[in-house]
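Researcher: Please translate sequence to structure tokens.
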Amino acid sequence: MKVLLPWIITILIIASSKADEPTADHVRAAYNAFYGKFRKSGTSTRYALSNIVGFWQTAETSEVFVDAYERFRDDASRTNMIDVVNSWLDSQGDDWRNNDYNDDILWACIMLTRTYLHVGTARYLNDAKNNFQTVYNRAWTDAYGGGLVWCQGKTSKNACVNGPGAIAACYLAIATGDTSYYTKAQNIISWMNKMLVQSDGGVWDNIDWDPVNSKYTYNTWISTYNQGTYIGATLMLYEYTKNNDYLEMSKRAASRATRISDILDGEDNGGDLIGFKGILARWLGKLIKDMSISTYNVWIQNNAHSAWINRNNENLMWTKFGTKTENNIENSSEDNKRTMTAWGCSAAVSWLVNLAAL
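Model: Translation complete:
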């Protein structure tokens, strides 16, 4: 009996852990809770997302509903996707050139083109094409050998605009049949490989110019969302070209992403950061599903498990996957980085929808 006891305890621990892992039903419950919490009546019959601000954050939160439709493929998730995307367009209009942040515009181009590919609404594709061209025309320059400028009037060229730029170009190529978009995507990735991507697959944040010391400066921060968009862009170029080098780039970046942290409990300091993990989940999920890769499953499911068991009593999960989500977080005494928002809760929903219980 003394010999068997440790084995019994081990079995019970494993069984308990397995019981807490998110299942397909849990993924649906997380999605329903998220939409139910944050939807609000708009000026029409559609729904906007409440408690969320910012052009690109709303676009990226809306893209979670595209992810969900691709996961569930049912009428309810299709309706929700269209409602959220239309509400975003109602608030932002069709011409975004007054937004100096080129990355903001490209995130929206991705969201709209993906939605177009499912529902065929011409407005989505036209807006994506026109605004992508606005960005490419003004943001691609010869400085630093090419690449897209992050923000008009600034000099840095960032991964957060070039990765999404390549993805947007690939989706537009698929949607229009115009292969010149793929050429743009290849040029962007070629530039990133020269200037920002490291041999281990890590994607540095940006390159800039120091006029005082006449030299390049780099921000070497490696973030979840920059890893994610590089994974997605290189995978899509592999699927187009069948050049195995692109697939190896994608897999190296995925492996580097898994080394950011065992459990993704950071990138929570308010503002933009709180939704980053959801972007990684989207493109890592595409790599895993399209290429039938299981290499990262333990890390992925550990994070899915941690996010799910740390949900609150409404089945909502904050961006800190390793920390219990408060039940009444709106009334928290902490500063506004901990206010419950759709953007801050979208990361975990994206993680479960794109990666859990596949």
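Researcher: Any highlights?
Model: The CA atoms of residues 172 and 178 lie 8 Å apart.
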